[in-house]
Amino acid sequence: MVSQNHTTEELEDLYAQLLARSPALAWIKDAQHRLIFINPAFGEAFNIDRDAWLGKSVWDLFPEEQARAIAANDTRIQNADETESVVETVTYGGRSYHYLSYKYPLPQPDEKRFLGGVSVDITREVEAERALTQAVTRLQQEATLRDRLLGLFSHDVRGPLVNIVETVRGLTDDDDPIEMEDLKILLPMIQEQASETLELISEVLSWVRMNLNATHLPQRVLPLLPRVQQICQRLDGHARARQVRFALEDLEQARVQSNGGLVERVLTNVLSNALKYSPPGGIVAVSAAARDGAVEVYVDDDGPGIPDEAIVLLEGGECQTPRRGASGEIGRGIGLALCQDLMRRNG
């Protein structure tokens, strides 16, 4: 449509000024998806000379995976009869950009189809949405942690404390004085319950601290062998007392990504468990293998293992039924539940 008050040449000049001043990125690609036109905003967005990109396709400009996704969109829309909007991500100059692009086919007289488009930078919006999603996830994790703690304190902590209080009340009952022989039996039971309750509270507090701090620690790549050696040295006295020894295998090349000391915390807990349940003369073997771009760490001991029903509970984020170690120590699975949370947060 041409205005009655303006010539075609005048309108074309106005249209050129509109494209030149538009903050949106305007572009045209030929039938082979090569850029044949970009407006100034396009060059400014990527800090390039327009001539440096003209004649090139996404395969020349962006990483292969991104180029494949953009080319698939271009081909589909180029062969269609309707405008389509797509969100696409590109990496250039070490930085990632997110664009909402409106693409439309441009039929040519020779029956070829060019592709035109206008792209709007939505990087800030995408990053804000991602940050919001992460915040919601953290809130959900903290709510789950709160529910677990309430369950632990209402059952595993409250129960032993009630027993201790009732036992002590019986000891101080003037109407029914306790005999010395009975006292000798009850005091060790009280001491054991108090010690186990204190250990449980310590584990819970450690769980809370690590969960609150885990997402705020920077990630870095660490060699695994020195960490495992340090942990084994710290646990050496415990291992000697139990007549258990460590064996380290295939750890020299292993590298792991960790938030602060999370990997060390997890390995310390798992190796401590292996010692707790290993019989005298047992071996705790630690090894690692690369698989699918990750490192799998194996801790193999001579203990009874974890029952299938307990593994189901742990995978569901719950603690297992209390069990006794080789020397009678009680374990509730809080440490393993903590390890699972930390590994999930560590990625």
Report on the architecture of this protein.
- The chain has helices at 8-21, 40-46, 50-53, 58-61, 64-78, 123-171, 180-213, 224-234, 236-241, 262-277, 308-315, 334-346; strands spanning 25-29, 35-38, 84-92, 95-107, 113-121, 219-223, 245-249, 255-259, 283-291, 294-300, 323-324, 330-331.
- 52% of the residues lie in helices and 22% in strands.
- A hairpin with a 2-residue loop joins strand 3 and strand 4 (95-107).
- By secondary structure, the chain is an alpha+beta fold.
- The chain is elongated, with a radius of gyration of 33 Å.
- Helix 8 (224-234) packs across helix 10 and helix 10 (262-277) packs antiparallel against helix 12.
- It contains twelve helices and twelve strands.
- The chain has a five-stranded antiparallel sheet with strand order 2-1-5-4-3, with helices on both faces.
Briefly say what this structure is:
The chain has helices at residues 8-21, 40-46, 50-53, 58-61, 64-78, 123-171, 180-213, 224-234, 236-241, 262-277, 308-315, 334-346; strands spanning 25-29, 35-38, 84-92, 95-107, 113-121, 219-223, 245-249, 255-259, 283-291, 294-300, 323-324, 330-331. The chain is an alpha+beta fold and 347 residues long.
